[in-house]
Amino acid sequence: MTTETRTCQNCKTSFTIEPEDFEFYEKMKVPAPTFCPSCRFQRRLMFRNERVLYRRMCDLCKKSIITVHDPKKRRIVYCSPCWWSDKWDALEFGVEYDPQKNFFEQFRKLQEKIPVMDLVNSYTTLESSEYVNHAGHLKNCYLIFNADYCENVCYASGATYVKDSLDLLSVGANSEFCYEDIMSGKSSRLFFSEDCFECLMFISQKTCVAVAIVSDAQICATSNTIFITNLIQEIYTKKNLRSCASIRMLRWRI
Ligand SMILES: [Zn+2]
Ligand SMILES: [Zn+2]
Predict the structure, then answer these.
(1) So what's the pLDDT on residue 212?
(2) Which ligand is located closest to the Cα atom of residue 87?
(3) Per the domain annotation, does 141 fall within a domain?
(4) Residue 137 domain-assigned?
(5) What pLDDT sits at residue 223?
(6) Which of 65, 97, 117 is the last residue of a domain?
(7) Distance from the CA of 146 to the center of ligand 2, in angstroms?
(8) Domain that residue 98 falls in
(9) Residue 47 Cα to ligand 1 middle (Å)
(10) Same domain, yes or no: 22 and 63
(11) Looking at the CA of 7, which ligand is closest?
């Protein structure tokens, strides 16, 4: 079997299928793809709706709710208090599996029949936290997604063990008082920064580890990234990265 170039039926770009791919499809008894790898990846991600919210009615108590399920879709949706209650029995919705029939068709029928939760949360661990999804163990949080163990956090995705912070993407590991940060952790008072870990009082920096700055004046004076990079390099060579001593040394140097 040779390499074959196909045109994606969705985005119309060309993609190749290697001989070993054909062997795999043959082994799995599935047809070769007609979508390119990017479009196939998008379709796989469609199964999980993390941040698109809809308003619809709970199919049990009839109250208006916020949910991840589009009201146009044929799903039975219960609000969290109903879904987690004993007001219904999931076993009553069970169906017999028939190995002679297509699995996915049977799975689809089951999905349309059984009630689903409005938001995918560990509902009983949430306290005063509205508009959150794929979340658990939150207190006083609002509009955060894919989050656990947060308190006083708003507008975030991928936050774990974060306190008193806003506008975050993938920030965690006991961070606090942070704003507008991406892929950072174990930091305090970190603002407009990316890939920063174990940093204290830091603004608009990228890829920094164990850096501490003590006042606004010093932040301005040390905004030269090369200067900071050199200091980090010194810490690396002294092999005391991540230690308190390294942070104290850096404070002194700055
Ligand atoms: Zn495509
Ligand atoms: Zn309800």
Answers:
(1) 52
(2) 2
(3) no
(4) no
(5) 41
(6) 117
(7) 23
(8) 54-117
(9) 18
(10) no
(11) 1
Per-range mean pLDDT, top range of 35-49, 51-65, 93-107, 199-213: 51-65
Residues 241/235, Cβ–Cβ less than 8 Å: yes
What tens digit of pLDDT does each residue of 82-125 get?
Answer: 999 999 999 999 889 999 999 989 998 998 899 999 999 999 99
Tally of structural domains, the chain: 3
Give distance in angstroms: CA of 15 to centre of ligand 1: 8
Would residue 131 count as lying in a domain?
no
Residue 18: pLDDT band (50, 70, 90) is very high
Q: Which ligand is nearest to the CA of 36?
A: 1
Asked if the model's pLDDT at residue 245 lies above 70, the reply is: no
CA of 80 to the centre of ligand 2 (A): 7
Among all bound ligands, the one having the nearest atom to the CA of 9 is 1
Ligand nearest, relative to CA of residue 81: 2
Greater pLDDT, 145 or 74: 145
Buried b (16+ CB within 10 A) or exposed e, 116-145: bbbbbbebeebeebeebbbbbbbeebbbbb
Give the number of whichever ligand sits closest to the CA of residue 57. Answer: 2
What are 46's two structure tokens?
């469609």
